[in-house]
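User: Please fill in residues for this 81-position structure.
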């Protein structure tokens, strides 16, 4: 639990520190850099798959506890034209 709290604290503090350093080095607005870094962190922390399928799988799982969701393949390398 303590390791997770440290990880979450670092995820929230590191963009502010990097933005402050960028402000001192290049003179850009620190809020702009911090905002960009938070957006990047948000995008990379989104769960894989879509939110709609996750919610519907949860509702199906409530009705049928033995339901197994099929794995979705989002790799562009496996798609054939």
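Assistant: Residues filled in for all 81 positions:
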């Amino acid at each position: 639990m303590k390791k997770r709290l440290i990880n979450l604290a670092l995820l929230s503090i590191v963009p502010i520190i990097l933005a402050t350093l960028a402000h001192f080095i290049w003179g850009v607005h620190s809020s702009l850099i911090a905002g960009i870094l938070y957006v990047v962190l948000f995008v990379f922390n989104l769960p894989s798959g879509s939110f709609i399928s996750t919610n519907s799988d949860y509702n199906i799982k409530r009705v049928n506890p033995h339901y197994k969701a099929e794995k979705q393949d989002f790799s562009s390398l496996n798609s054939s034209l």
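For context: The chain has one domain: 2-63.
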